[in-house]
Amino acid sequence: MRRFLLFFFLFPSLLLAQDSQKEDAFFIRQIYDEALTEGKSYDWLNYLTQRIGGRLAGSPQAAAAVEYTKQVLDTLSIVDSVWLQPCMVPHWVRGEKEQIRVVNSLKMGTISLNGLALGNSVGTGANGITAEVIELSDLEEVDSLGPQLNGKIVFFNNPMDPTQLNTFSAYGKAAGPRVWGASRAAKHGAVGVVVRSLTTRQDDIPHTGSTVYDNETTPIPAFAISTNDAELLSRLLQEEPIRLFMRSTCEMLPEVESFNVIAEIKGSDYPDEIILVGGHLDSWDVGTGAHDDGSGCVHSMEVIHLIQRLNYRPKRTIRCVLFMNEENGLRGGRAYWKWSNGKKEFHLAAIESDRGGFTPKGFTVDGHDDIFNKYFKQVIEWLPLLEAYGLAIRKGGSGADISGLKEQQGLLFGLEPDSQRYFDYHHTPIDGLDVVNKRELELGAAAMTSLVYLLDKYGLK
Amino acid sequence: MRRFLLFFFLFPSLLLAQDSQKEDAFFIRQIYDEALTEGKSYDWLNYLTQRIGGRLAGSPQAAAAVEYTKQVLDTLSIVDSVWLQPCMVPHWVRGEKEQIRVVNSLKMGTISLNGLALGNSVGTGANGITAEVIELSDLEEVDSLGPQLNGKIVFFNNPMDPTQLNTFSAYGKAAGPRVWGASRAAKHGAVGVVVRSLTTRQDDIPHTGSTVYDNETTPIPAFAISTNDAELLSRLLQEEPIRLFMRSTCEMLPEVESFNVIAEIKGSDYPDEIILVGGHLDSWDVGTGAHDDGSGCVHSMEVIHLIQRLNYRPKRTIRCVLFMNEENGLRGGRAYWKWSNGKKEFHLAAIESDRGGFTPKGFTVDGHDDIFNKYFKQVIEWLPLLEAYGLAIRKGGSGADISGLKEQQGLLFGLEPDSQRYFDYHHTPIDGLDVVNKRELELGAAAMTSLVYLLDKYGLK
Q: Which domains, from first to last, does chain B contain?
């Protein structure tokens, strides 16, 4: 024992380091205890999903979500200021319930498919469109088939790869046709596009999501159909030519004003070093956006709430940002970057939660190479504190809403929850409160708060 | 490059080790690919839960589950033998729907509670019982209150600790009153026992589970009530004396014969070294035992199926055992141990899956100290292969059905899935197929198969 003390007498900094690590472990334990017993995230998510509902940018529900989250953040006394940051957003409306059906199968007659118009899609006109279907396995086939697409409805039937353990990787590889299929096919005279829903599940649930038109071609209507119906359509096409009827009255209305919701605790020692936590407040209209991204919003609000409950006074500025219009325009993110860069702000770190409210497995970290290489080592030093809660740290993208902050030369983090169930619900009518687990949600907020605590206490050096 | 080759020329064993690790990584990748694309576990679980249902030992459904799983295992051509191993099991029946209600609240009148008789409980008699309630916070209070319990219904209101990240730890610490409460309270003349359901969720769902009577006292009826009702009852008791009416017609019938279902692939090189994979086939009657433990059964069957699909010929004997009566007697486990020990068998390893069908996080490992210390190092060497799939290995208990195999001086493993949701469903009417995610289930089977592959290929040295 004496020798032990002598050791620390000779190397007092080690003793301090050890004390400090104990203190950190103790504080992080308190964060988790508090999140799991006094957390508010689930109650807030209940309100966002059950009382407000789907929150597509420009909708009355999106306005309600802005008002509700601002009011909640206003009740947190630790917050120095809460404000709304305006941005103009696209205002797309789905209109009447879409129709999509096979109209001429000799074997099976007329078959209604489970379909949804893709977000931003133009409508078909009140009479709908009917055309022969041509099946493609990927975006690359469009140009090779060229003229054969003329007058056709192009059906992209590329499945998500179920063998990818990270379902976001499979999503990234399969999302091309949903995003670019309509504009690419229109170049060759296609009259409509149908994509296979982006999920590894075989079921009857269609998944919407945004499609993007370029400026060169006339927009054509785009739908998603369920994976079961994609399989059915593909089988039918092997036997006979198939004609589809599609009808949607969706349309893009004039842009409207909306807002990011921002709450900030001013740092006591380094107010100019900002640590941002955020998610996006808008969601698709068909469900109630519980995982995407109600969870990320209440995670971020909970960070502020937990800091308050634990009487922690941050040295750096902690800012919670609930972004508007991530789903079909990213206008909130862009408005924020422009404003922040204009003020020459410095985000030491930004953490986005936009991968659902499942059990957190850690964080992905992003940044310019030199920044990443400089600071990643330090973040890794915190791992023992985080691993006790099942959290790992790896290089990887952060989140769309904060991606523009990379220019500010700080680190960008993405909360990384277990991804196995995410694409069962993503952009569907079943992304609701009942598929979010309260404990899993609370653990996500605790994970983010723990990282914020370490970033705030130690900074990045 | 030349220097690199020279290095391996001088140390060829390193080259071999590297080759071997590549081969292992490749094979494990194939296991996962196969499980996620050609796995049968979810289909089998569908049959067990939707077609057969709750499978309490002694019930017709338990017999159907024995027959069904035997038939499935018989279809797997790689299996050398499938057999039923008899065991006598308790035959407890729940009888008519239980009733439990507050009968005298001045403020609220009569209040029906959400309750279930605990498994093995005696009934109340056709007229039910009515008595005053006394609330206790834990088993330890029983003896200190002693005579005050006479003629009372004892209400154990000890919640599971929500701050434990591993919910099984919280369960273990809170389960005492459910298991021993009735016999302990009966010693002091209590006429009935009510326990708070074992879950961290606040809801209206009662959780059953076994209670154990000693031989010294006359058994008294025991119920579980939902956590919401436990809170309600506790609040009422703070205001006024409360009397409860309890009625159940459950009873223990004479023992009946049932079976473990066993399938075996004889090892080519070391047939006497057995690697067991297993789960338990029985479940509580109130739900359909999807997580507990239909998942563990189909995980274990899938191990055999994947080995077959990959044309892997095991060097050691791989044995799949579906145990009977884990929930309220462990008779299947005991029969198996007795039979296996009698034959002087050696289980090199046994892996039980009895913690649900959620995303696997790794394995717990158990064994006699000397065995554990001898072999754990080797198991840890496989970690890099398993970590790629999010799997860790830590010291910890394995599973009730294989616990008796510890005497055979091999290693015991428990599959460890994410535990956050397990006690939302455990022993309830809502433990059904709809709360099992297909991918998560498949990943559990792949994890077990990967460990079996490594154990089979390398043994334990």
A: 23-92+254-458 (3.40.630.10), 95-249 (3.50.30.30)
